[in-house]
Amino acid sequence: MNEPFPELAGRRALLVASTGGHLEQLVQLESVLAVSPQSQWMTFDSPQSASLLAGRDATIVPYIASRDWRGVMHAARHAARLDWDSIDVVISTGAAIALSVFPVARLRRTPTFYIESVSRFEGPSLTGRMTRRMGLARTFTQHPEWATDQWHYRYSLLSAYQSVEKPLGENFAVSRIFVTLGTIRPYRFDALVDAVLAAAPPGAEIVWQLGETDRVDLPGRVHRTISVEDFDREATQADVVVSHAGVGSTLRLMELGISPILVPRRKARAEHVDDHQTQVASKLEAAGLLQSVEAPDLELKHLLRAAATSVHKTLT
Fold it and tell me: Structure pTM?
């Protein structure tokens, strides 16, 4: 595969992303960008960042919630203290943390690149729109459908995957389920928890990663957050994975060869700031990679279909 970003090859980058989907994407994009091994990272503290960035040069800043402009300014002070003589370029997949770093980079006359999240199928996020409007970075989309002279298309993480049916034994039954709700704050997702409880067959072992949805009424093993290593182990050992439609969780699961059931968070139930997860789930379902199911509609048949499907990576 040709390098989609030849101007970045070998350059010492500052790679900036919020934890969750933004960080997972940037880690997967790192090899595509072909930046220098001496590159640095800037993100938040979490089990995910500790696992993915172990052994790398990483600056950890306090968590920035959605629309938290005070947090943006606080992180900008951290960015200003970096050794900018060792940074050739800044690259970010968002979210608000990008707005902390891009203005500092512009003052230092350091080139900046913003690659919009693959979850944005119909147009840029608020961070993307602000970055473009203020001219803070060169802007790229991962979807050619909405590419313009201002939003360039070079590459999409989703182009690397295809689904494959896998045979199940005649007496197959779902016996182990892994449920992951992500870690976005401060949003709960009780509707998905209740849906899994209703759909799971009797006796099935369930492992839960709940994030903000703390519950004391659940069978099986319950975790609020888990490391990437534990996430990978629980996902690969399960017959079925049921996930919120966060792009980070989804990409990680597909990287593991898993076709998850995606259940989108809904703004009307106060599960997210907007309904962009419905786009993620519906577009990936349309591409034949997985199932998208609304929380009240989850049934055993969806679990069985997911168990009979895997995902293969076709490009590297």
Answer: 0.77
